[in-house]
Amino acid sequence: MIYGLLAVGVIFGVFAVAVWFKGEKEARKLTSAAKSIDSAIAEIESA
To answer: Is residue 15 within 8 Å of 30, Cβ to Cβ?
Structure first.
């Protein structure tokens, strides 16, 4: 549970930084990558 909350925080942080530096298109790519990382973490936690 704690790791899930941290992952969500990281996703929002990555999104904010990406929007700030590179704009929306790049941010969408990064958030999709972050979501796949988050789902991988969720699978590890449930295992």
So the answer is: yes
Quick one: tokens of 11? 């996703």
Question: Which two tokens mark 36?
Answer: 């796949």
8 Å CB contact between 4 and 41: yes
The distance from CA 9 to its chain's CA centroid, rounded to whole angstroms, is: 8
Cα-Cα-Cα-Cα dihedral of 22, 8, 37, 39, to 10°? Answer: -140
| pLDDT score of 42 | 87
Cα–Cα distance between 27 and 17 in angstroms, integer?
A: 8
* Contact status, residue 31 vs residue 15, Cβ threshold 8 Å: yes
**What's the pLDDT at 15?**
80
